[in-house]
Amino acid sequence: MIRLTLIEARELAESILLHNGFNLAHAQAVAATVIAGERDGCASHGLYRILGCVNSLRAGKVSADAEPQVIDQAPSIVRVDAAGGFSQLAFQAGLGLLAEKTRANGIAALAINRCVHFSALWVEIEQLTAVGLVALACNPSHAWVAPTGGRVPVFGTNPIAFGWPRAGQDPFVFDFATSAIARGDIELHRRAGKAIPEGWGVDAEGRPSTDANVVLDSGAMLTFGGHKGSALAAMVELIAGPLIGDLTSAESLAYDEGSKSSPYHGELIIALDPRRFLGAATEEHLSRAEVLFQGIEGQGARLPSQRRYAARARSMVEGVQIPEALYNDLKALLA
Ligand code: NDP
Ligand code: PYC
């Protein structure tokens, strides 16, 4: 393993992106996301993703210098046209107006269109909880996941993330793929030459497989929780696809033309302002939420994101460690 400080890790990511042609704004926004992933112990959405960014650019499937356009679509709807660039800059562009509309109306949505997307969603959710808002985000990806009862991929790994702000504490955040596991995790198993657990995927005939190559290349991934994950994956396809005038995972994969680039589609983010819902009773009701969290933690169960927050605290002191093979692959992109 190679140990890097967070500053070294960020410089490495940024310099690779700049060297390969991304402009400074995109390089900084993308590097910030992958370093957050690495810092928080989310290797599947950490520095490893820089390889995919460069591959997507070389394949002509992402713009290196797209300028997101913010559109004031309706009293409660912000739209950002990412113009074929990575989603990070588009999210940053729309965040201010989304927060403003949420405060004015109690609820508002941000629809990001035409973005190339690979990031973990908690990075965005935490920016909304940081300003006191409750938030929900989701997006399609590429059609890699079979519906329950089938074996042909139609869904993306379609993450859903939720955040709830907590006074003086880290927010309550969960963020998971509606597939049994993020595809990035299976890709990391392949890189490490490791078998994957049963339940993550099937071969082309629909038989359970623990071979990452089979599941990634010719079989299909599975949803989490059987028919429940399958229905949630379909919901994500609908509300972050046709509802916002953007591509489904199947359409994103067709657009990819076998280049193995990052998915190209839209993203839906919904924000809610507790103060607008509750007025003078806000603090009273938010404190009742704390009783719920105590009920979970009080019996030894953990809240989602606690592992991540602990990893964050550790990385701030110790830096991060990445496999030497990944470090070498990253350095090669500077050649
Ligand atoms: P995991 O299954 O690893 O974890 C999902 C969530 O569950 C996390 O919030 C995690 O918190 C929490 N969790 C895990 N174990 C427990 C536990 N024992 N008790 C309580 N909470 C727990 O995630 P996935 O593989 O499904 O997804 C990983 C990432 O991939 C996500 O960030 C997602 O946004 C990203 N992704 C992005 C896609 C895209 O299109 N951009 C597509 C698919 C996934 P903790 O982190 O603290 O362990
Ligand atoms: O890990 O499934 C995944 C993924 C898809 C797009 C970005 N991450």
From TrEMBL:
One of its GO terms (biological process) is proline metabolic process. One of its GO terms (molecular function) is protein homodimerization activity. Keywords: NADP, Oxidoreductase. Its EC number is 1.5.1.21. It catalyses: L-proline + NADP(+) = 1-pyrroline-2-carboxylate + NADPH + H(+); L-pipecolate + NADP(+) = Delta(1)-piperideine-2-carboxylate + NADPH + H(+). Signal peptide: none annotated. Pfam families: Ldh_2 (PF02615). The keyword Ubl conjugation does not apply. It comes from the Bacteria. Belongs to the LDH2/MDH2 oxidoreductase family. PANTHER family: MALATE DEHYDROGENASE (PTHR11091:SF0), OXIDOREDUCTASE-RELATED (PTHR11091). Homodimer. This is Delta(1)-pyrroline-2-carboxylate/Delta(1)-piperideine-2-carboxylate reductase. It comes from Pseudomonas lini.
